[in-house]
Amino acid sequence: MCPRFADPAAPSRPLFVVDEAAFETWRSGRPAAEAAWLEATGFAAGLGELQLLPGPDGSVAGAVAGHGTAAARARGRFHLAAIAGRLPEGAWHLETALTGADLEAEALGLLLAGYRFARYRTQSAAPRASFKVPAGVDAARLEAMAAGEVLTRDLINTPASDMGPEALEEAVAALAARHGATLEAIRGEALLARNFPMIHAVGRAAAQPPRLLDLHWGTSGPRLTLVGKGVCFDTGGLNVKPASSMGLMKKDMGGAATVLGLASMIMALDLPLRLRVLIPAVENSIAGNAMRPQDILTARNGLTVEINNTDAEGRLVLADALTYAAEEESDALISMATLTGAARVAVGPDIAPFYTDDEAVAGALARAGGLLADPVWRMPFHAPYETMIEPGIADLDNAPKGGFAGSITAALFLRRFVGAARYTHFDIYGWQPADAPARPKGGVGQGARAILGALPGVLKL
Asked: What are the structural domains, with CATH classification, of the chain?
């Protein structure tokens, strides 16, 4: 599915978008029969209200959507998307006073409103309403963002039986081919064990061998490197997860899925930069050759890591990938991972927390997240917690005891592998726990649009 706005030449019906404060004035300017109909039906322009408008022949001539109050709208996003599914099928166009970022966010929500993960369903989805691009909105940009988000969702929603390391590599190859990028897949027992020992240690027990996927695109401009955690399924290893925690672990490659969605947006929009995407693709499985608690691994950069919990594997594969990324100069290095439950406890499932030491990056992300309906929140690289990841027997501990500051200590762990790079880390959830406007229950991208919106300022494009 590639979200598109309706054909601008197609006949369409109007969807009037009216907030509570403007409703009486708006209604007084409508034809008498229409105003009487709205009064008779009790329509008051509350947020989420929808009323179809009859034509003189009894057909549906249009509709009016309530946009409520500013206070009501602040408690959610993509409000028109919640209404879109209740409209009759066919093309519609917006009649609204919305402008700028507010209009853009609602238009993006309308594009995403039709998303359904239907790969395993035999029943066809019912026809839905479609929308013309509103005046003043950059259709190509919104369609690129929507297509990237759909790619992310589809990858996360696909179960590990069809989205293991091999299938993830195939998905990256397809994306590279679509946009003229190059892909190198680094695999092989001896090669990985020697050059990427922690990627090898995490993935060696799985049926499908581990690999590091390295995509390059663009020939000029600033360099952007994205690193995404690609743990296609996480049993927890020998520290096996309970069933209640393992049930969603097909989404543990959500970081990889999100950087691929972001890469899709960047390449589709032909941004003037040089892009690199690194994905360590593994499964954390249980077998006789699985890594063990209290094993000590030597990372690609020479640091030793004591394994105090085999379920803290994401930071291990990212560490080798980040080291490799930092060996090539970049203007920005960003990692994304479904890394810790502690991040969910801190900010819940709807916000993408991020870490950076760069004030300009932090400000640009916060502004872009607000404008693009992609909420993010800055967390601290709190240096006094560095001692928590130093076990004594080795340079680093992959799972500090005590349970405190779990997301921060994971971020501090990763920072040990980036050298002098301009580094930002996102600890995302990658999952929508319940249906919401434009976000059905299931896989979801987080932080990608905020990064896309921040790039012009961060990279001076």
From this structure: 13-114 (3.40.220.10), 142-459 (3.40.630.10)
